[in-house]
Give the backbone structure.
Amino acid sequence: MNGLTTDYLFKHHHILGIEQFSPEDIAHILSTAKSFKEISNRAIKKVPTLRGKTIINIFFEPSTRTRVSFEIAAKRMSADTFNISSSMSSATKGESLIDTARNLEAMNPDIIVMRHGFSGAPHLLKKHINASIINAGDGTHEHPSQGLLDLMTVEEHKGEINGLKVAIIGDITHSRVARSNILGFTKMGASVYLAGPATFIPPGIEKLGAEVCSSPVKAVQDADVVMALRIQQERQNDPLIPSLREYAVHFGINKELLKNAKPDALVMHPGPINRGVEMNPDVADGPQSVILDQVTNGVAVRMALLYLVMGGDKTSNSES
Ligand code: CP
């Protein structure tokens, strides 16, 4: 696979965050995803790579893109998949997360893909079970497959990530996507600039390698990538902004703000979008938007992750 000519081997049994990856790991995941992408364009969208493997998707929070994308990825690799949502799981009857996981483990799955509202939930799980854990978003911590699909989309459109200026605007405080993207883009040599209402900028975020700007105009100035984040109202006990209307006026991505970026800047959003709040519809659907490319690449990235945690490189090398 990928015409590997070096001694590089992907050594991660679990995918918990971009934090765990070296730039070489990220480059390898992206090149593996690139090689898998064409499978989704075939008349018969299926390869036998993960035949006989069992994958459980357990989502304790709502999801459209990530859940469906992981399921499509697994099915395109011929794995057997099972989906559990929080309302269908015995967690509603008081079962602990660890007990749920250990009972699932007793059925011998190979991979558990989990989204959970608590930061660190997948890290806790990995101490108790042997199956590979893939973090599909944990609280406000990380969303590694989203970060990787964003990197893939930028690399696809810009050729390389190194040297780019990336502006991220919005609710950084509650965004696992922001953390994964700050880590991913800076590891790959891009500069990341953040802007948002003061209540949406967590103290110390600069330690991850990003620069906090005093306004969206400053963050977006000469940017190659302009990414808006969703306002995560479900994670705010009290409103942290006066109103959505004011937020839209001062921090929404509109055509005027975009004029400050490079003319060929990419417009991104992880979804789901609150149109007219985080981003105007004419920008979300405009010529610079790659939002649906992000979703398309999500399938390829997740195919790559499933393949790699199952020791794909080792299998390919031993077959070659
Ligand atoms: N980007 C993202 O995680 O979307 P979902 O919540 O729909 O999975």
In short: The CA atoms of residues 115 and 136 lie 5 Å apart. The first strand starts at residue 54 and ends at 59. Residues 291-309 form the longest helix (19 residues).
